[in-house]
Amino acid sequence: MMDSSTFGAISDTNLDIVSTQSHTVLCQRPPQFQFQPGPQSFSPQSAPSSQQQFAPAPAVPSVPARSNSGSSGFVGSFNCPDDFGFYPHVKSCDKYWACDNGTATLKTCGNGLVFDDSDMKRENCAYPFSVDCGDRSDLEPPISTPHCPRLYGIFPDTTNCRIFYSCWNGEASRYECPPGLAYDDNQRVCVWADHVERCDQSEVSDGFVCPDQTEADQPGHYTRHAHPTDCRKFYVCIESVARPYGCSLGTVFNVDTLQCDDPENVPGCEKYYGDLDSKQVKKLQRS
């Protein structure tokens, strides 16, 4: 299993050429997410946005489809409209006809993908959220592996709302949204955790309760509060909802300026990074 820490954006530019018995199929490599190291930093000069747009690219991989040998329950003959092309099955969204020199071969997309019929000259299986199947509602039964309800797709973790998995041929790559965010399966992005119904809100905020906003001596629509035990962490309260944040590596939260600062400038946090000074820590992060 491949493992990563903080969710970024899919790169969909890496292409392979895979040969089959009859022709060559353009296949895209598994989606890769790009990451920024360390927890999120926060600039108190501007209010945080409602969500972080770390979204998978809508153009999703073409993968080698398997040919169906022999007859299958709802499979019949197909008359190719043209000598070469790829055409949707009348009932099934994950099956299609490949016409080669006027001869039709029934194929099935990888488990979890469906046939994209937007271009009849292009053989393309894609994620279901990017394809309108219309009345083609039939699908192959799921083939599952650990963390992958189907062999291909992006799936939320069943117990931790911050974690999700990108599955490629049954291999699950684990990703985790930054602190304060959770994976929204509908939008396929990391959003504020309190906007995701399956999240336990008390768990998301570590039990921190926002003080009455009228008592907070801070202007604006949100307030910032130090973590009770960790110098690097702090909370942003928006409409009485606590959202955890973390300063970048080498810095800690300054309760006087309400910004991330060097440890030597924050009483009680001078030794947060042990004997390393903040410059050494930042240098280690860059290396």
Give a summary of the structure in a few sentences.
With 287 residues, the protein is mainly beta. Helices cover 5% and strands 30% of the residues.
Q: How much helix, percentage-wise, in residues?
A: under 10%
Mean pLDDT: 75
Rounded Rg:
25 Å
Largest sheet at a glance? 4 strands, mixed
Overall, the morphology is elongated
The poorly predicted ranges are 1-61, 69-76
Strand content: 25-35%
Question: In words, what does this structure look like?
Answer:
The protein is mostly beta strands. The protein folds into 2 domains: 2-44 and 51-195, no CATH class; 205-286, no CATH class. The protein is 5% helix and 30% strand. The protein has helices at residues 201-204, 278-286; strands at residues 2-3, 10-11, 15-19, 24-28, 32-33, 51-52, 66-67, 85-88, 95-100, 103-108, 114-115, 125-126, 153-156, 163-168, 171-176, 181-184, 189-192, 222-226, 233-238, 241-246, 252-254, 259-261. The strands form 8 sheets. It has a 4-stranded mixed β-sheet with strand order 1-15-14-13, with no helix packed on it. Strands 7-10-9-8 form a 4-stranded antiparallel β-sheet, with no helix packed on it. A hairpin with a 2-residue loop joins strand 14 (163-168) and strand 15 (171-176). The chain is elongated, with a radius of gyration of 25 Å. 32% of the residues are buried. The model is unreliable at 1-61 and 69-76 (pLDDT under 50). This is Chitin-binding type-2 domain-containing protein.
